[in-house]
Amino acid sequence: MIKSRGQLLNNIALKLKKRREMLLDVANFVLENCTPQKLLQGKLSKQSLKKFNKVAVISIGKAARGMAKAVLPMLGRKPDYVLLADKGHPLPTQDGIRNTKKIIKISRRLGEKDLAIVLISGGGSAMCVAPAHGISLKDKISVTRALLKSGATINEINVVRKHLSQVKGGRLAALLYPATVLGFVISDVVGNDLSTIASGPLSPDKSTFRDVLKILEIYEIRIPRSVSKYLECGLKDENLETPKPREKYFGKVKVQIIADHKTILEKALMKAKEMKLKTFTIDREITGEAREVARNFVSRARKNALLIGAGETTVTCKGHGCGGRNQEFVLSGLKYTDDTQVLLSIGTDGVDGVGPEPIAGAIGDIVNFKNAQVANLNIDTHLKNNDSYSFFKKTGGLIRTGPTGTNLGDLMMILG
């Protein structure tokens, strides 16, 4: 029987709806199985804690509360201190400073017969914040905001952050010395560089003040006078440098990564297999400018198959719109998808960029094109203004999870 155009369009819409539901099912499964409680299972032995006088639990980043809650039942004893740095992201806040000052105070109290269990997750760079002496919170925010909009990589941003901080770049390890330190890390950083995750509070730092100045110059970042003055002092005074490899502070520090971008792929593959989907993965971590990476990602899609990737892209902000790298990734990718494909990208922390509401990311297909035509919206105009949020707000496709309490980077998928 010959089907009418209306019936064909109806069939296409039904297929797209089913594919959207499939992608959202995979994404939900990933989030449900990447909670701190599940990731920390079996990582700590109660027997090994008996020999210590005092035990402090210090938890930093977007997963701080969940990680602390997961660890406490594993201790076999009540800890002497439980300290959280989980306020203020993507820009640091006074709450973050207050929490970090408590961490500094308690860290200095611990001795060689004490233990610090330090739980680290993405977002810690903004949340565990104590500006270097002479730098105000306002000036620290000014530099951070400029870096986030510049297109600089997270590694480059954190080189700057480390040198403007009292706790980053191995300085927390120095504050905790001579206590024993066990670190457990949920990584959102491509390559799992421990000196970059949350700006490496427990890790020796190879970067220098000269590296900071190079980064600021490359991205043409204008800095406040207080920051400029501190950097000038750092060039002249070795005592202001971050702790380097082979310094005594790291002798009793052991750090373990318990989950990363590969964990996202593993969980997504597990669910896809259960759903009997033909699946391919991009094993290399996905990085680069969101709109460029999206085009390449769509080009690698295969017919009647699911393609999965994970990583963290960047966005060079030149417009004044709202949205994050995941929303911009999907908006850019929509230009290259065909009528059968559905594209999704979310941040596993549930918060993608800065906007009027917490958005995890977006999902889109040909339906968004049709809705955009009705609303007289243009993709290129929204991309030029970095306004992916408004586009998906009007055409459908925003994904709302709320803050998830974990942070393993971004999940990207296309099904068609």
CATH class of the largest domain: Alpha Beta
| Biggest β-sheet description | 6 strands, mixed
Instruction: Give the integer mean of the pLDDT values.
Output: 94
Strand order of the largest sheet: 6-7-11-8-9-10
Number of domains as seen in the coordinates = 2
Strand content: 5-15%
Distance between the termini: 25 Å
Architecture of the largest domain in CATH? Answer: 3-Layer(aba) Sandwich
Named CATH topology of the largest domain: Rossmann fold
Low-pLDDT stretches: 1-6
CATH level-4 homologous superfamily of the largest domain: Glycerate kinase, MOFRL-like N-terminal domain
The secondary-structure element order is HHEHEHEHHHHEHHEHEHEHEEHHHEE
| Helical content (DSSP H or I, runs of 4+) | 40-55%
Give the helix tally: 16
Q: Count every beta strand, where a strand is a DSSP E run of 2 or more residues.
A: 11
**Principal-axis shape:** globular
Q: How large is the radius of gyration?
A: 23 Å
Structural class: alpha/beta
Q: How would you summarize what this structure contains?
A:
The protein has 416 residues and is of the alpha/beta class. The chain has 16 helices and 11 strands.
Question: What would you say this structure looks like, in words?
Answer:
The protein is α/β, with parallel strands linked by helices and 416 residues long. The chain has two domains: 15-35 and 261-415, MOFRL domain (glycerate kinase, domain 1, 3-Layer(aba) Sandwich); 45-259, 3-Layer(aba) Sandwich (Rossmann fold). Helix content is 40%, strand content 14%. The protein has 16 helices and eleven strands. It has a six-stranded mixed beta sheet, sandwiched between helices. Strand 6 (279-281), helix 12 (290-299) and strand 7 (306-311) form a beta-alpha-beta unit. The radius of gyration is 23 Å and the shape is globular. Mean pLDDT is 94; it is low at 1-6.
